[in-house]
Design brief:
The complex is a heterodimer. By secondary structure, chain A is an all-beta fold. Helix content of chain A is about 0%, strand content about 45%. Chain B is globular, with a radius of gyration of 13 Å. Classes of the chains: A mainly beta, B mainly beta. At the A-B interface, strand 4 of A face strand 5 and strand 10 of B.
Chain lengths: ~110, ~120
């Protein structure tokens, strides 16, 4: 599976949009981009995934560049409860292989 | 819908002792994973089961770690004997399994401290 690069930490003001970038320049055509987050003392939680089109659900939006070499997770109105480590992962859909977690981005939402 | 259940929540042992962790996945989930998460790092897969068969245990330290999934439901992860470097959170996750864009559902983990 392709590797990803994320900034180690970011801050965001409460109520503002949080934009978390991820670089995956070696992504293959059949690899999806997944985002998970991990709130302190909890297990990781699925947020969203996509292949090449932008995706939106009740938690977040995922914007994937046209060349698919990078993506951005957007939390439109960040709250204090969104403070967590966010992991960007690329993985072949339907593969029996595990998700490989990097170090992620520590997002801190400030009051 | 009940989530992935893990116990115990915390465990403190001395080095060279043995310890076991238990996981009950979401009902109907065929795939079960055990991850190890050392402080400050992302989770690392130890073993993956599909029903009661092992799919991937390439990163499981088999000289001291063992895992089983009886009847393809509950699973137990054991460490014997424990070392100081085994101090970590042990996470269990499950998914429906099979083809498709799978979501993993994680438990809250067991925090192990080896003294």
């Amino acid at each position: 599976d392709a590797k990803t690069t994320q900034p180690p930490s970011m801050d965001c003001a409460e109520g503002r949009a949080a934009n978390l970038p991820c670089n995956h320049s070696t992504i293959s055509g059949n690899e999806y981009v997944y985002w998970y987050r991990q709130i302190h003392s909890q297990g990781p939680q699925y947020i969203i995934h996509g292949l090449k089109n932008n995706e939106t659900n009740e938690m977040a939006s995922l914007i994937i560049t046209e060349d698919r070499k990078s993506s951005t997770l957007i939390l439109p109105h960040a709250t204090l409860r969104d403070t967590a480590v966010y992991y960007c992962i690329v993985r072949v859909a339907g593969s029996a292989r595990q998700l490989t977690f990097g170090s992620g981005t520590q997002l801190t939402v400030l009051p | 819908e009940a989530g992935v259940a893990q116990s115990p929540r915390y465990k403190i042992i001395e080095k060279r002792q043995s310890v076991a962790f238990w996981c009950n996945p979401i009902s109907g989930h065929a795939t079960l994973y055990w991850y190890q998460q050392i402080l400050g790092q992302g989770p690392k897969l130890l073993i993956q089961f599909q029903n009661n068969g092992v799919v991937d245990d390439s990163q499981l330290p088999k000289d001291r770690f063992s895992a089983e999934r009886l009847k393809g439901v509950d699973s137990t992860l054991k460490i014997q004997p424990a070392k100081l470097e085994d101090s970590a959170v042990y996470l269990c996750a499950s998914s429906l399994g099979g083809q498709g864009n799978e979501k993993l559902f994680f438990g809250s983990g067991t925090q192990l401290s080896v003294l």
